[in-house]
Amino acid sequence: MRQAQKKESIQVHCNQCGGLRWHRILQEHVQAKQPAEAILADVLTVVNIWQIVSCKGCEDVKFRRYSQIEETHFGLNTTTTMPEVYPIPSSRALPGWLSQLPMVMLEGNRLISVLKDTYAAMEIGAYWMTSIGLRTALDLVALDKIGLDKTGANRTFEEKLKALRRANVITYEERRLLSFLIQQGNASAHEAYQPSRDALSTAMTLLENTLYRVYILPREIQKHTPDIPRRLA
Asked: Which domains does the chain have, with CATH numbers?
């Protein structure tokens, strides 16, 4: 492995920043091979490139791999394959406030783990797994807010929503909307239902809004309320 030039940089999707960003190439390994077939060995060269890159904005590190096929029979023509990037590029970034959950809920770390796997499943097209993951995330909210005695194995997800409503954790309208997420997850779990990406995006927005309203917003209001000037008598 050789050290890449310090000024060398490329554009790569950054999940942390959201979208294409300039990255420094920290390390690069290049390997050239001729095809095993003798008839192709004289005219084709396959160059495999592995790179470790770092975002210039957030410094998040990624692994990038691609190949170049060089044809020399009729002059030098180079074809570059679509690069593979790990972690897999995500079109929908996890909410920035997600890291605050362990400070406001007992199941915070478990919920973050579930959501990371759920968002990753959506990016690779495993839509039924995404649907089940969103339902599991909501189940952890119920476990955190109303306890194990009210979220036991014998209770349905709809009953857990009712319990959340009775405990004033969610509003009546939120209960009605979250029923969509539950029904979608149930169908995926029991009937291998594959929701559309658009339907899953709607469910994700619904869950994110609920998590923010239940856990993060009260904390933010409490933090900023002292900044409001008191009315003079």
From this structure: 2-86 (no CATH), 96-226 (1.20.120)
